């Protein structure tokens, strides 16, 4: 019996060692699987490295130099960052960017929500209307900006002509420093309404209809259902829209460049417009790269704050 017991224990020990030892076939399969994943990721990884990661590293290196795009680079360390942080023009550019975001974000969200709520009903022709409202999203920003520049022309624009028909004197719009940024905000919100509408409409259609039926039985009106059911259940979609809108808002450029070029009197000079001017108008690529990285850090901090704060108001249940 003792011999048999010893043999059994030895057999179990060998079995455990064999089980613990790596299996060549299993390891080979894992390597093959990892290589297969890498091959499928290459079409996305190569453009990411070439057009995102690579330029970011290059910009970080350039930001530590003084360079006019023609002559050799001269090492200046963190001087570019120090000059930007103490430059009143940089402060104004960030303030103008924040001004744009503060005006743009509520307008595009409320407008997109109103369209989503309207098109979530049994409205005749709603499929056609969804396509019509989404059409500006896929339209080139240059085209949209040129159209709105014509619509808001102070002397020959359609908007001021309509206002004059009602006896209202139209403002100077993009030619007036006080109205230039609102002009850009209006054009931007009009173009992005369709995108916000689609995201919020998808969120609305995922809300359980039983919640509305129960609220109606309890006597809840439309406003009570909106603030008690719709907006809380729509919070994940709202969070997604706000994050993307803020990131895009900090990077606003196309409409500013086409409609005002940063004017009049630098009243619409936003951060990316200043990056463009520093690079191609003043030949200060090092300063422009440093400003780009400052903008990146601002966007990163704002985004991290949003992701931290969403725990308190975003409902995923």
Helix/strand/pairing category: mainly alpha
C-alpha termini separation: 62 Å
Helix-strand sequence = HHEEHHHHHHHHHHHH
Helix content: over 70%
Number of domains: 1
What characterizes the major β-sheet? 2 strands, antiparallel
Please describe what this structure looks like:
A hairpin with a 7-residue loop joins β1 and β2 (74-75). The protein starts with a helix and ends with a helix. Helix content is 74%, strand content 1%. By secondary structure, the chain is an all-alpha fold. It has one domain (79-313): MetI-like (MetI-like fold, Orthogonal Bundle). Strands 1-2 form a two-stranded antiparallel sheet. The protein is built from 14 helices and two strands; from the N terminus they run ααββαααααααααααα.
Summary?
The protein contains 14 helices and two strands, in the order ααββαααααααααααα. With 317 residues, the protein is mostly helical. Helix 5 packs across helix 8.
């Amino acid at each position: 019996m003792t011999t048999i017991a010893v043999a059994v224990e030895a057999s179990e020990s060998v079995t455990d060692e064999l089980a613990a030892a790596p299996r060549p076939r299993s390891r080979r399969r894992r390597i093959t699987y990892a290589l297969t994943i890498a091959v499928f990721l290459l079409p996305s990884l190569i453009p990411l490295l070439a057009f995102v990661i690579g330029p970011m590293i290059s910009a970080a290196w350039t930001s530590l130099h003084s360079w006019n795009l023609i002559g050799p680079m001269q090492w200046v360390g963190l001087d570019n960052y120090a000059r930007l942080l103490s430059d009143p023009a940089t402060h104004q550019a960030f303030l103008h960017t924040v001004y744009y975001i503060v005006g743009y974000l509520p307008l595009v969200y409320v407008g997109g929500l109103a369209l989503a709520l309207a098109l979530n009903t049994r409205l005749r022709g709603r499929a056609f209307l969804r396509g019509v409202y989404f059409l500006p999203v896929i339209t080139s920003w240059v085209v949209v900006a040129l159209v709105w520049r014509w619509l808001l022309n102070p002397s020959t624009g359609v908007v001021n002509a309509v206002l004059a028909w009602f006896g209202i004197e139209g403002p100077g719009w993009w030619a007036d420093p006080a109205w230039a940024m609102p002009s850009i905000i209006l054009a931007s919100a009009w173009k992005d309404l369709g995108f916000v509408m689609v995201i919020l409409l998808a969120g609305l259609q995922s809300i359980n209809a039983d919640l509305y039926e129960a609220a109606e039985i309890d006597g809840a009106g439309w406003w009570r259902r909106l603030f008690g059911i719709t907006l809380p259940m729509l919070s994940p979609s709202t969070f997604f829209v706000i994050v993307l809108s803020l990131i895009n808002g900090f990077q606003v450029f196309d409409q500013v460049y086409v409609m005002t070029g940063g004017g009049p009197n630098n009243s619409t000079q936003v951060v990316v417009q200043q990056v463009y001017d520093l690079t191609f108008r003043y030949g200060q690529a090092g300063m422009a790269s440093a400003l780009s990285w400052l903008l990146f850090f601002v966007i990163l901090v704002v985004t991290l704050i949003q992701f931290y704060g969403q725990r308190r108001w975003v409902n995923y249940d």
